Amino acid sequence: MGYYGLINSFDNTIHGNKFSIEGLGSSIGLILKDPINNIFAMSHISLPDSSASKQGYHLLFPHTFADTSVKDLYDNLIYNGADESNIRALIVGGAKLFLDYDLTYQENLDVVKKELKSLDIEIDAEDTGGLSERSIVYDTINDTLYVRKSWEFQYRKIIQESIA
Q: Which of 27, 98, 128, 156 is deepest in the core (most CB within 10 A)?
C-alpha cells in the first residue's frame, strides 16, 4: 500500500505494459491515463487524509493518502509528457470490509473524487463499494481495465466511457 507505478510507452527502457494490484479492500486503486500520449500511472491508496501522519510520512509516501496521491500521480504524468487536457481516471476499490463504525472505505472514495474534481479530471470508469476485496489488471496497450472480486474465478472487463 502507498506505492505507485508509471508507464511511458515512449520510454524504451520500460518493457511492461500492465499494472496490477492484488487484494484491494477499502483501499483505492487509482489509474490516471493520457491515452493520446501513451502515459499511464497507478496508485494504491490506503488512507483518506495525510493530516494525521507523523514526521512527514506523507511527504515520503504520498501514495498512502488520497489527499496527496492524486496530485502527485498527476504531477508525475505531466512531468513525463502527459497533456493535462487528456488525463482521465479509473477508480477501483473502496469496499466495506470492516466494522460499521469504520468509514475509511467511503472517505477514501470521497477524497479521491474531490481531488480529481479539483484537477478537472473526469472518471471514465469505476468499480467501487460493496463488500468484496478486488484484484485489478490494467492493460495500457489496449486501454482495458479488468477486475476480479474475491469470490470470482475470472477477471471481467470494465467498460469505460469513450472520450468525447
A: 27
